[in-house]
User: Fold these one by one.
Assistant:
Number 1:
Amino acid sequence: LVLGKDDDGKTVADDKKSASPSAKPSATDTGSAPPVENPRGSDSDPKPVVPGWKVVTNPKWGTQFDVPGDWEVASSGMFSGFEDAKKPDGPPVAGFSAPAYYKSKWCVDDSDGDGSEEDTGLAGVGTKGAQGAKNTDEAATNEAANWVWAAYAQLDPKSKVKIGKPKPFTTESGLSGSVVQATALELANKEKCDSDGKSIAFSFKNSKGDFSTWVLYAAAGVKDELPDTTIQKILSTVRLSGQPTG
């Protein structure tokens, strides 16, 4: 289900046929190393807004945000997305870069019986562009809806996806934009690792004036569900960082 691509566009993770969200791609690119824990840190290391959390940097879109210390941060050059459950060989139906994951091996199953087990995580977060969007309301609405559908509800009726109205939002750094939440509840959940889901998208303009969107998806109604309070705290740390390379 989750595809990973490096900066050269090569696929670096196994294509999964499951429609439930896998966690971290099975391989990462070599374009940039994932952050290394350093108990003393260094002057050049980005400092988290929340003490004890990890910084996620996306050079392509010129953004940073923090995640709790027990999250897994992939390399900044990693592209991660959900494949089309009905056309696994086609392009991914959702994707973002420089991702981070919560409990990436929360559930393990060989749902398609191909002998290869798939890891399903509790949550994932990353940043993407919003080409074609007319404004931040539209961008956030589109991404919140698409991600909860792609991660959880591809094989369910589209009516299961409920999309909230866009609301103005400003992060702790003063970055303003629009935020939208969406849910996919009461799904069929036929496989062991299937679950209902929720998503939140925050769209804004980066320092180049391009629309960008921070997106988080998470399993809903499960044990160890990522609390909405934690999601809001992560969202509050989204900030611009450097000149976008994308």
Number 2:
Amino acid sequence: MEKLANCRKFGGYPHENAALFIADFESYATLHNISPLDDNRIIAALHLHLTGPALTWFNSLSSENKASWEAIVHLFNDKYVDLDWQNPTVMLDSEIFENMSLSSGQSIDDFYCQLVEKANTLKKPDHEIAGNHRDSPSALAAAKMGEAYGYRKAELQVAAASKQAKPSDKRDSEFASLQSQIDTLTKAVQNLTASKTDESTKQNRRTDRFAYSLQQATNPPQATNSRQQATYLPQATNNLCFNCSSPNHIKRYCNWNGQGVSSSDITCQLCDQNGHSAVNCERLSGN
């Protein structure tokens, strides 16, 4: 038989109107000569018009419940038409409906559609949708009239916007005090770390100098001739001379007379020490 009309499918979602669907489906069945007394045929037609959670619900029914159209309609009404106000979904939809308000920049027609959709789901009477108006169409007309006269101007929206709460002075002072304490502790830790590093460096230098002196006293170098004895200079490769700030010798054996320029790049031609030239060598003045 040629299909005369279509019937929209039902998914069982909260925004869908279950009562309207079952009424449309019964009209669809009548139009296609599907008798309510023919249980198998009308139940099969309903099965083809269910999707999503509603189809899952139908498939979970027992064979006994699926054998009678009256039983199917009764279970469908219990599930989707008769509201259970203790159901979390219904409670959430009711709370959303009670707190719906026109957003800035939102079209009144769009807001009206959302409001009516929630009201139909919750089976709200028309006067709850319309507020103080007699019906919802007159409420929509009044709202559009107000919009036409410019009550939703930008400057009014700014004036009506809620002000952000400023933190109290006490909270600011407590935060500033905590920040000051944190800064003080940070500086103290940095100073303590720096002082420990300096002390460790000085201690290492004293230890190296003591070890070098002890080594020289215990194992003096052997010279093969008088010139080697005269020109031999102990070297400390790990320390700088405190007199000329040059490597490979210490202040005790430094031959710089304190005059002229001292640089680690200069090598004396008389004593082979780094840090001074032959002109500023004590050996030159001694000769």
Number 3:
Amino acid sequence: MGYFLRTLQLLSTCVAISLVGSLDSWTVPTSTWSFVILCFCFVVTFIILIIESLALHYCFPFSWGDFLLCHACYLALFCLLVSIIYPATYVQFLFYTPSWDHAIAATAGLLSCIMCVLYAIDMAYMWKHYKLKNIPCYVHTLPGLLKILESAVACVIFVFISNTSLYLHQPALEWCVAVYSICFVQVVVAMLLKLRGWEKRLPLRLPTFHRVGTWFSFLLYVIAMVLWPLYQFNEKLGGQPHWYRDMSCVDELTNYGCVWDQQLAVAILTAINLVIYMADLVYWTRQVSVGLRTSPVYFIPSTKQRWSSQNSIYC
């Protein structure tokens, strides 16, 4: 089942890359990012297929099952993003291109949707396997899923703020970018500590580390949630409150995308990530309130258990 899904993922990704690459849309940043995401999906999936075919996953010091679930979750979210952003961007800013190009863009968007479904099926299949076999898996828990969502939303924010004109003119907005980066690093470190089994190297317990890190990130996102809309959409602070006043949005010949839309997208994504951090914070606060002194049991299985469980997935 796993090999079959990997093959379908590679085929659909390869066709989508060919379609996107055939269109002259490189001057639009979101189109370029869509192409990069598709290439990333293809390369990662191809490497995983090769590793599994040669049984090289036995050599890795981390849980291969956790890695596969993370891979499927992230790529499903990224493909969903491409399926929404790429067709919308192409139709909006390259409206006067030939109708044949519009059909190609629509097909690429459809293939991105198919890729998203394939990665979601892969994730659901492994999820069901771990649940039925009662195999411990960090990503299979609520804290693990929340960490994936937090980092995935942060990655989407980074795509939009790659346009430095959104924030370089205002120190408060640069602070918001620093907030996104700091919180992203904190999430990645927390996930690596758990996935690699390094939590015992910390000077404090892992649940305490999670609580402190989540509180810190939550407070930083609250500040960003206030500063970003305030300095982007308040005219008194140099912002642009109305879409129709932004020349990048009303100019039909622009090739750089609507800056106001990008500012709004970052504000919405900041709010979404704030809600996710709030859910994460509620979880860890509840753990303390019910008197739990340790986090839920996520032990790293032994090498023999890990490889035997992974082999059973693809039988």
